[in-house]
Write a structure and sequence with these properties.
Elements: E1 2-5, E2 8-11, E3 14-18, E4 21-32, E5 35-45, E6 50-59, E7 68-79, E8 82-92, E9 95-106, E10 119-123, E11 127-138, E12 142-151, E13 155-165, E14 210-221, E15 231-243, E16 263-274, E17 281-291, E18 301-314, E19 319-332, E20 338-350, E21 363-373, E22 376-385, E23 390-401, E24 405-412, E25 417-424
Antiparallel strand pairs: 1-2, 2-4, 3-4, 4-5, 5-6, 6-7, 7-8, 8-9, 10-11, 10-25, 11-12, 12-13, 13-14, 14-15, 15-16, 16-17, 17-18, 18-19, 19-20, 20-21, 21-22, 22-23, 23-24, 24-25
């Protein structure tokens, strides 16, 4: 027998419905959007979209033998795409990787499959490290995360952050971004490995463009060009950012992966960086980045100019300004490969008590590409200091992905850092 309600399909030998509650037993297949669950019995409330499944196997893989799966005593649908699993064991193929007493996450094509698993790494300053992200709260409009890491040379590091969508949900916006930190610091950006096969946005959904955020960090690496070991404490940092719609003056319906968004952000916080400082200093800052697609190069290519401006005022009565411009070129190929190139010119004036928020490279060129080869992915990104004529940083990536799982390793040359990460696709 089979019964379908909205995005949910239930197949089982025995299905009965009383009012809003569907009960199924005897080898049940439960599907909701991108997830597939087998269970011994299911109870599902169609009105609240909540339910309980027992003796389950959970995956987003379509194959008979899934690349990954969760097995658990009980799975509870909490509503709002949230899932709680009790007595969960995680398998890669036939190998049991870890067991957790309780796991809570979002599912059904709306959650993020990144940072669900421990992330091992090694670099010359930190030594061996292991990081794990914990979701403290995760609703359509509010998300709070704790990211903790243990480094063999530095001990425990961590950050707690939250984000609230003032005018809509926190569903991801497709495209690329210029975070306000990019106006000062230089770090080539590797294109993200895609982990969503389909859009997680509902047709009736409004994605938040006005977002309030906060951070509280302990010994956070800044990866400053002049001092790779520089640490910053944000206790706290509060901000408000507005992500404007993509400006396409060429009217080419540019592919969402290539779009850049104008942004404005205002922040206030108390900061301390080490080595060098014993006390916290407050800072108020406003940063603006403007960009637009001007040339009619088609849906899969763009040249987008960039204009940036930022001003900060500090508790010690000093102030600091940055302004600059750049040009971003990008190309998306039919194979799924992407290539980007960017030139940025920065200027500054005034004085800041910190290194982490001052300009470290005034003229730079960045180039990146990512190429899928079957199930394999290779990527490379590099940054050139135009004033010195030297490559100041580069990073190489190798990844492997199936229909439901992606894993990749990266090597970061400047930090001499090796890292591994994995993500569930379409979670």
């Amino acid at each position: 027998m089979e019964q379908s309600v909205s995005e949910v399909t239930i197949r089982a030998p025995i299905i009965e419905q009383i009012d809003n509650t569907i009960r199924a037993t005897g080898g049940v297949l439960f599907r909701q959007s991108t997830i597939r669950v087998t269970a011994s019995e299911v109870s599902y409330d169609t009105a609240s979209r909540t339910g309980k499944l027992k003796d389950i196997m959970f995956t987003t893989c379509e194959g008979v033998h899934p690349d990954y799966r969760f097995e658990a005593r009980e799975l509870t649908l909490l509503g709002g795409d949230r899932v709680r699993v009790r007595g969960a064991s995680f398998y890669l193929g036939r190998l049991k990787v870890l067991t957790l007493p309780t796991l809570v996450f979002r599912a059904g094509g709306r959650g993020s499959g990144r940072n669900m698993f421990p992330r091992p790494s090694y670099d010359k300053d930190d030594g061996f490290g292991l990081a794990q992200e914990f979701r403290l709260s995760d609703t359509d409009r509010f998300r709070a995360l704790a990211d903790l890491a243990f480094k063999s040379k530095r001990g425990l590091e961590g950050q707690i952050e939250y984000e609230y969508g003032l005018d809509g949900t926190l569903a991801p916006l497709p495209g690329r971004f210029l975070p306000y930190e990019a106006q000062q610091s230089s770090a080539p950006v590797m294109p993200m490995i895609p982990i969503m096969e389909r859009s997680g946005q509902r047709s009736s959904e409004t994605i938040a463009r006005l977002r309030q955020f906060g951070r509280f960090s302990l010994k956070q690496r800044t990866y400053d060009i002049r001092n790779t070991g520089l640490l910053v404490f944000r206790q706290p940092e509060l901000g408000l950012t507005y992500i404007a719609p993509h400006v396409d003056l060429a009217e080419t319906e540019l592919d969402p992966q290539l779009r850049l968004y104008p942004q404005i952000a205002t922040t206030w916080g108390r900061y301390k960086e080490t080595p060098g400082q014993e006390r916290f200093t407050s800072r108020i800052g406003v940063n603006l980045a403007m960009t637009a697609n001007l040339l009619p190069l088609g849906r899969n290519a763009a040249i987008q100019p960039i204009v940036m401006y930022g001003v900060s005022s500090y508790g010690n009565d000093s102030s600091y300004r940055t302004w600059g411009y750049g040009i971003d070129a990008s190309r998306l190929f039919s194979s799924g490969a992407i290539a980007t190139a960017r030139y940025i010119k920065r200027n500054d004036s005034g004085r800041s008590p910190f290194l982490f928020d001052t300009v470290d490279i005034f003229r730079e060129f960045q180039g990146a590409f990512q190429v899928p080869i079957g199930r394999h992915i290779v990527g490379f990104v590099a940054g050139l200091n135009v004033d010195t004529g030297k490559v100041y940083d580069w990073e190489a990536l190798y990844g492997y992905r199936t229909d439901c799982l992606a894993a990749w390793v990266t090597w970061h040359s400047r930090l001499q850092r090796f890292s591994f990460d994995a993500a569930i696709i379409n979670l």
